Amino acid sequence: MEHYNLTIHEAADLLARREVSSRDLTQAVLDRIRQVEDRVKAYVTITEELALKQADEADKRIAAGDAAPLTGVPAAIKDVICTKGVPTTCGSRMLENFLPPYHAHVTERLLDAGLVMVGKVNMDEFAMGSSTENSAFYPTRNPWDLERVPGGSSGGSAAAVAADECIYALGSDTGGSIRQPASLCGVVGFKPTYGRISRFGLVAFASSLDQIGPLTKDVTDCALVMNVVAGHDRRDSTSAPLDVPDYTQSLIPDLKGIRIGVPQEYFVEGMDDQVRASIEAAVKKMEELGAEVDWQVSLPSTGYALACYYIIAPSEAMANLARYDGVKYGYSNTRGDTMWRNMELTRQHGFGDEVKRRIMLGTYALSAGYYDAYYLKALKARTLIRREFDAAFEKCDALVTAVAPTPAFKIGEKTDDPLQMYLSDVCTIPVNIAGLPAISVPCGLADGLPVGVHIMAKPFDEPTILRVAYAYEQATEWHKARPKL
């Protein structure tokens, strides 16, 4: 096995036994990036010099007996998470040359744990998209089929993990942006409860929906990363002041006493037959592992979640993106004859089409005469969706569905039809609307492309999700499948 093929826990074990150094491990990953990156296009910025410096520091920590499980393990960070002195572009021309003067909270946590950052990974511009085709720089390609999308908006994170261009990555999830690319690339992607991980230093898209989470090669790695990045942060007013459990204690290989529900509304019209079969087989495997399964759970308001999301998210995005005025930081076009004209030109040339589309949607939804008809009604629908989940979790410990209705689609297939692109997230969006935790775990192949099973639980019950995910993963071989690049 090559060093870049390792999981976090395998790498940590070798590092602890001094059978490999962090510098050797990091160099192996950097060599892998050189080998495949021109085809995958996962990275926006590769930080080779910084990574090797951090690796040398990690080796000193390990030698001194001051190592944590993530110490010296090469990682990639989604380019929407601030890294002091390292470009954070958000996949946009607007921030193409932006160097943050501070670290995000999660970056600080990882640095304290011995981070080795090999680079910042590509994404849909300002996290708005489901395919990473909306990046201002270039589309990322799916390592399983280079003619297909890796999903989005954390497509660079998922593709980098799947292609072994890092050992693990961080992404962000506003409507499925961790879980959907994880499913399409055959890796594990975890969206924690809203408030479990600080959003300080995460460039905002929709502030009531955004959440940072890990993308990893298996569930054990996911728990290890969560142990580091989860926790309260006083700089984020939405950060939950709750104790964080040791998530590795949830990695139990059976499901005795666990109640699982299968919501019928998630078997949406147009779902690929092989995806449906993979999800049904995954639930049956969970049943074999001791879970009690209810196949008739109903969440009748699920159908409204997509419309609800595409009112709330663009409305919040419109407010958040108003800060990009060409005055304080980022791209600035000064060819106009007035300040107002310069602002128009800055936004015209700095933002891509999808970002402009969502700004216009949000402006319309919040405009006088339409606020009550759209935004206020969406907030009421959001409350209804949350209450239905609450009722379901009184009877079930976890809900299991598909992550995406189809496997990865071809690059360019949906770029001219925004509605079809939005439907890619139909199974993941309700989780963000309700603020729930959820994970995608590999569960099969459809036409040779990965399929992920979606496991949800009540707020702050990440341990149950990890238990179900781990037990299923250990009883199957899907997480070991790797693309042939």
Q: pLDDT average, as an integer?
A: 96
Quote the CATH topology of the domain at 3-234 and 437-480.
Amidase signature (AS) enzymes
> Unreliable segments (pLDDT under 50, ≥5 consecutive)?
none
CATH homologous superfamily caption of the domain at 3-234 and 437-480: Amidase signature (AS) domain
β-strand percent reads 5-15%
CATH hierarchy, class of the domain at 3-234 and 437-480: Alpha Beta
How many strands?
Answer: 11
Written description of the protein model:
The chain has an 11-stranded mixed β-sheet with strand order 1-3-2-4-6-5-10-11-9-7-8, sandwiched between helices. 56% of the residues are buried. It has 15 helices and 11 strands. It has helices at residues 8-16, 22-40, 48-63, 105-112, 155-162, 179-185, 219-229, 273-288, 305-320, 339-350, 353-366, 372-395, 418-422, 429-434, 462-474; strands at 43-46, 74-78, 116-121, 168-173, 188-191, 211-216, 259-263, 292-297, 398-402, 438-446, 449-456. Strand 10 and strand 11 form a beta hairpin. It has 485 residues and is an alpha/beta fold. The protein has a domain at 3-234 and 437-480: Amidase signature (AS) enzymes.
